[in-house]
Amino acid sequence: MRKILITGALGQIGSELTVELRRIYGANNVVASNRRIKEGHEKLIESGPFEIVDITNGKQLHEVVKKHNINTIINLAAILSAVGEKHPEQCWNINMNGLYNVLEVAREENCMVFTPSSIAAFGPTTPKDKTPQDTIQRPTTMYGVTKVAGELLCDYYFLKYGVDTRGVRFPGLISYETLPGGGTTDYAVHIYYDALKNKKYTSFIAKGTMMDMMYMPDALDAIIQLMEADPSKLIHRNAFNVTAMSFDPEMIAASIRKFIPEFELDYDVDPVRQAIAESWPNSLDDSAAREEWGWNPKYDLDAMTKDMLEKLKVKLGL
Ligand code: NAD
Ligand code: AKB
Fold first, then answer.
1. Domains recognised in the chain with CATH numbers
2. Which of 18, 179, 232, 248 is 20 to 30 Å apart from 266, CA to CA?
3. Which atom of ligand 2 is nearest to the CA of 84?
4. What is the predicted pLDDT for the residue at 21?
């Protein structure tokens, strides 16, 4: 029986993953945690056990793991790329020292650990198209540095201590439940809100900038499928390339125009986030994930746009 602790559970992924895991494993077997309570998450907090856990506080984390007999930690607490460039020291502390605490507690209490990596683990010298699973990883952001180091640290804990660590390199995730937490791919979420509210969006990412993306239901499937995968089949563990689509701002705008024909897109490019985007791949090769644990996303760009617009319309009361 799984007893799961989710760190950073009130973020973009955690707020939806908690609900899905509680549906599958039972509400009492999924402990949600975050370093602080965030407004708008009352329903989630009341739907099962919830604890305040700051992952940079190893003692607090350890106590909660012991209190709930946790055997699986899904570590979602992190600082993302754009915020990470504003606060590199905080990004290093949470993403690295926090992960170290998670792995140490997992080693002592015999827990499995799932930690997402990112397309940010690649850099400007990585092959840009169909980026292979095993390739050059020399990122130029603090976030990317923590993601590569995190992948290596997770491998180390598996090889040295036998901790069952697993992870995927997520692309930009698009969802309607919780806004993204300060990344470079966030434009691809904001565009849907503005399309519905104003029929117009000003992109901080330039025309022609291709990045991998994925709709949240597929991201949740990726986490659950990899967590449940037969360990004897896993060659890569930390971390698998996964993707569902690759587009630039013009392509997502064209998809939105299929549902809102008068939608307009213009640009006010942010040099910091644009430089980050340009250092990342255009598209990933995710064949290792497909071969080793059956990864197979369901949503392409138009299917995602249709669902996003329908769900957001209801959410925004439009
Ligand atoms: P998010 O920023 O939306 O949520 C992170 C959560 O962690 C927030 O609720 C925040 O309050 C919490 N947090 C921050 N510091 C903490 C600490 N010290 N202790 C405990 N909680 C803390 O992030 P997300 O989008 O849900 O991402 C989760 C993971 O997935 C991260 O590792 C991120 O790098 C990775 N990822 C996300 C995306 C994406 O597009 N969302 C893409 C690739 C990888
Ligand atoms: C970000 O833009 O920082 C994240 C990511 C791709 O890791 N969405």
1. 4-171+214-241 (3.40.50.720), 174-213+244-283+298-316 (3.90.25)
2. 179
3. 3
4. 98
